[in-house]
Each structure stands twice: as C-alpha cells, then as structure tokens.
Design brief:
Structural class: mainly alpha
Helix content: over 70%
Largest sheet: none
CATH class: Mainly Alpha
Radius of gyration: 14 Å
Strand content: under 5%
CATH architecture: Alpha Horseshoe
Order of helices and strands: HHHHHH
Distance between the termini: 41 Å
CATH topology: Serine Threonine Protein Phosphatase 5, Tetratricopeptide repeat
Low-confidence stretches: none
Number of helices: 6
Length: 107
C-alpha cells in the first residue's frame, strides 16, 4: 500500500472510531515516509481520542521538527497543552501559530 492509501484507510477506521486500527495505518504511513505531515496530524488526533495525550504531544513534536513553520502543528500542540492544563505553554504555541498564519497570509 502507498502512504496515501494507508492514510485513507486510517481515516476510514478513525471515522468508525476504530482508533487502534487507525493508529496502525497512520504509523505505517509514517514508516513509508518519515516526513508525511498529514499522517503525523492524523496520528496525534487518534492518540488524543484514545486519551494518550503524552504520546500525542510527542507525535506533534516530531511533526514540528519536520516543519516548524506549520501553523496547524502549533495549533494542535496548543490544543493538547490545554487538555493537559498547561495554559502558558498552550498560549505560547497559539502565539506561534498565529504569527505563522499571519506570515503565510502574505500580509
């Protein structure tokens, strides 16, 4: 299977709340392409839904390492930090996200 097929299969499992199966698909997609940002995004949300916040945070850290200028990655991190109760860290990540979104808007 291609990384895109694995991602699509993962989304199908995710939609059915089959989070373990979705997680496996997203991990396999990342194994095929360690810079496949969509799979990191999907994997982090899957782990979040499973209540595995610390693992989700680690996945988003890898995503940010791949692309530190991805506003969505910083937004995802902010959301996870809020769930952990780390409000200052969440606000810091959202500020980064907002700055990147502004820069990318061409304004």
């Amino acid at each position: 299977m291609t990384k895109q097929e694995l991602l699509n299969n993962g989304f199908q499992h995710f939609a059915k709340r089959e989070y373990d199966e979705a997680q496996d698909c997203f991990k396999q997609a990342i194994e095929l392409d360690s810079k496949f940002e969509a799979a990191y995004s999907a994997l982090s949300e899957t782990l979040n839904r499973k209540g595995e916040l610390d693992k989700a945070i680690e996945v988003v850290k890898m995503w940010i390492k791949i692309n530190p200028k991805d506003a969505l990655a910083h937004t995802a991190m902010s959301r996870l930090y809020v769930q952990k109760g780390w409000i200052q860290k969440a606000e810091d990540e959202m500020a980064i996200s907002n700055q990147l979104a502004y820069e990318n808007s061409g304004m």
